[in-house]
Write a structure and sequence with these properties.
about 475 residues; alpha/beta; Helicase, Ruva Protein, domain 3; Zinc Finger, Delta Prime, domain 3; elongated; binds zinc ion
Length: about 475
């Protein structure tokens, strides 16, 4: 016999084996035990979480010679036929390739012939792909089918299924499989096969599978085919040309030290080792996301993935969540833009060169906060020294100081500039409203994707009053003119 994929080999043959979908299993078990069957079921959820498997299990439970039973025998003609997809009373239809009204009409005429088993069961996979007229043709049939007919629909995109269909079905929402469950299953699979696997590889499979058990088994098959009996992450990293995370951490440390040359050299080194640009950006984004979660106080390793030692490098201490938000935002845009780039490598280099100045950049939120503080102090008619302090706060990024520290240098000139600008600011005050409340997140700022001046070193101030912007530039005007 040829190779059978693990996903097929490990497909649950009993509801007891279907883990992670307790609500679905309990409800179906009760329905079968109480002989209360619906005419139509709708299974919705992400890919690879057991929808089609559950549909087949339900079909088996209903038609098993020794049933209806929650534990089908898996031996009778009906059970064997359903497992092999050859049962004449359990018809599996792929919604993606049978979308027309003609296809549905064929089902409607076929329905008139009674089954040889207890029920005639139609499993329609990816039901959201049916055309509107096909859905309409289906409506009447699923509302009043012959007693012996049961429909089971499965979909990954429930929002595309019309409400008229949903309201005629018993609806089950399938959940993503938790990372612990994925890891546990892969670990016991390795035990069963006499293989070894390290924790990092397990975490890698759990992360890449994104809650789909089928994907997890597929990745496992691939890894075991080139790692043999012992799956170690170091080998996976090399074979799959992943970006070694120490290198990403190194790049971030170099960014803190504003060492653009070091950053680019590390990147070129990765390129020479075969790491693809897309892979690099995707791995980098993942690392930053984990670091952000860690900085937000989340310690769940399922979420932060890396050990606290990796994420707590002393170099990273001066990076604020704001800095990391900006980096992640840049990476996500970079990944989208690379498709249309004349040379994606150039885009990566540009991003990395800018990364060395990350601590000089301020988010919209930070700019708005500082402008508001500045405006408050000038509108209160405070003394020069207070204005000087506010101006010094705003002036920080221009002097490349870590965010949050107060500049000890040039207080006199800052105070002088602020004093001259406070007049201008109060002039603006007379005819301009105060600074608008800052947008809490960049994503909410309503800014169109790909807006041109986005990576300006001072950030995007397009959301704020012109008057406030003027006041901001008043503070810097000496610097700008000189
Ligand atoms: Zn059976």
């Amino acid at each position: 016999m040829g190779f059978i994929s693990t996903a097929n080999r490990k497909r649950p043959q009993d509801f007891n084996e279907l883990e992670g979908q307790d609500f679905v299993v309990t409800t179906i078990r009760n329905a079968i035990e109480n002989n209360r069957f619906a005419h139509a079921y709708l299974f919705a959820g992400p890919r690879g979480v057991g929808k089609t498997t559950s549909a087949r299990l339900l079909a088996k439970s209903l038609n098993c010679k020794h049933g209806p039973s929650i534990h089908p025998c898996n031996k009778c003609e009906s059970c064997v036929g359903i497992t092999a997809s050859s049962s004449i009373d359990c018809i599996e239809i792929d919604g993606a390739s049978n979308t027309s009204v003609e296809d549905i009409r064929r089902i409607k005429s076929d329905i008139m012939y009674p089954p040889s088993s207890r029920f005639k069961i139609y499993i329609i996979d990816e039901v959201h792909m049916l055309s509107n007229s096909a859905f309409n043709a289906l409506l009447k049939t699923i509302e009043e089918p012959p007693d012996y007919v049961i429909f089971i629909f499965a979909t990954t995109e429930i929002q595309k299924v019309p409400q008229t269909i949903k309201s005629r079905c018993q609806f089950f929402r399938f959940k993503s499989i938790g990372q612990d469950l994925v890891k546990g299953r892969i670990r016991s699979l390795c035990d069963e096969l006499g293989m070894s696997i390290d924790d990092q590889s397990l975490s890698y499979i759990a992360r890449e599978s994104e809650g789909s058990m089928r994907d997890a088994y597929t990745i496992f098959d691939q890894l075991s085919s080139f790692c043999g009996k012992s799956i170690v992450f170091g080998k996976i990293e090399k074979e799959l040309l992943l970006t070694p995370y120490e290198k990403i951490a190194d790049i971030l440390s170099l960014a803190v030290k504003e060492d653009a040359k070091g950053i680019l050299e590390t990147f070129f080194d990765l390129q020479r080792n075969g790491v693809q640009n897309e892979q690099f950006v995707s791995d980098f984004a993942f690392f930053i996301r984990c670091l952000l979660l860690h900085k937000s106080g989340i310690s769940d390793r399922d979420m932060t993935y890396f050990s606290p030692e990796v994420l707590s490098r002393p170099d990273f201490a001066s990076l604020t969540p704001d800095n990391l938000n900006l980096i992640l935002d840049d990476l996500l845009k970079l990944y989208r833009d690379m498709r249309y780039s004349i040379n994606p490598g150039f885009d990566c280099e540009l991003f990395l060169a800018n990364l060395a100045r990350i601590r000089m950049r301020l988010s919209n939120f930070e700019i708005a906060k500082r402008l508001a503080a500045y405006e408050r102090s000038s509108s209160d008619g405070d003394s020069d020294s207070d204005s000087g302090e506010a101006a010094a706060t705003i002036a920080q990024p221009a002097q490349a100081r870590p965010v949050g520290t107060v500049s000890p240098t040039r207080p006199e000139s800052a105070a002088k500039r602020a004093a001259s600008s406070s007049r201008a600011a109060s002039r603006h005050q007379a005819d301009a409203p105060s600074v608008k409340a800052p947008a809490p997140e960049r994503a909410d700022s309503g800014k169109a994707e790909g807006s041109a001046t986005d990576s300006d070193m001072v950030g995007d101030v397009s959301n704020y009053d012109v008057a406030a912007e003027d006041a901001f530039f008043d503070v810097f005007k000496d610097d700008l003119i000189n």
